Amino acid sequence: MLAMQYSIPLPPNHDAALIRRRVEARSTLFDGHSGLVHKSFLYNQKENFYAPFYVWRDVIQARDFLLDDLFKGVIDTFSRHRVRSWFVLHMAYGNRSLKATHALREIDVVPPDLRLEAFVTSEKAAQQEMLADPNLYLHLTAFDADRWEVLRFSLWKDKGSAARPVSDAYLTYDVLHVSEPSC
After folding, report:
1. Category of 9 on φ-ψ map: left (φ > 0), alpha (ψ -120 to 50) or beta
2. d(C-alpha 137, C-alpha 146), whole Å
């Protein structure tokens, strides 16, 4: 699986209601979209940016999305922004009966002296521990082999129930909608 995210900075006086309306109008295009494992429509009001987060079944489907009309709609509206990508190591659902309203994205360095097998095992163990939390909807761990960074992405019931970040490089978001095959 491949995770992707792009961040779109919005103008200083941008009306947040416009993003919410866009998500409402376009979210149904992604519910059950072929090849899409997960999409979180994310908004950070404090920093004023829109930052959708995707998980694709494979790199071919991710590539096809970037070249199709759905992504062309993003480019036509907001221009073309850099798209980050990560290889997914572990993705697991917690309590899927709750409505996720808060997202946490952390990026940290994979220490060069850490054996990769130990890194993968450690991240999986941390994820298993988190899955016991009834306020967790989803947790994903991935890595960027170009920068040797780990990505930890999680969806929570609300801001108050979210786990504390492990890294000092993190962002939080409001979750406007979640699209998945089972939607």
Report:
1. beta
2. 29
Phi-psi region of 72 (alpha: psi -120 to 50; beta: other; left: phi over 0): alpha
Name the residue with tokens 């416009």: 18
- Closest C-alpha to 16, from 179, 135, 174: 174
User: From CA 55, how far away is CA 53, in angstroms rounded?
Assistant: 7
**Phi-psi category of residue 166: left, alpha or beta, with phi > 0 → left and psi -120 to 50 → alpha:** alpha
Q: Identify the H or E element spanning 138.
A: strand 136-144
Rg (CA), the chain: 16
Element at 176 (helix H, strand E)? strand 170-179
Taking each helix axis from N to C end, the angle separating 69-78 and 59-67, rounded to the nearest 10 degrees, works out to 50
Tens of pLDDT, residue by residue over 25-70, are 999 889 888 899 999 999 999 999 999 999 999 999 999 999 999 9
**137-167 pLDDT tens trace:** 999 999 999 999 999 999 999 999 999 999 9
Q: Which structural domains are found in the chain, ordered by start?
A: 2-179 (3.30.70.100)
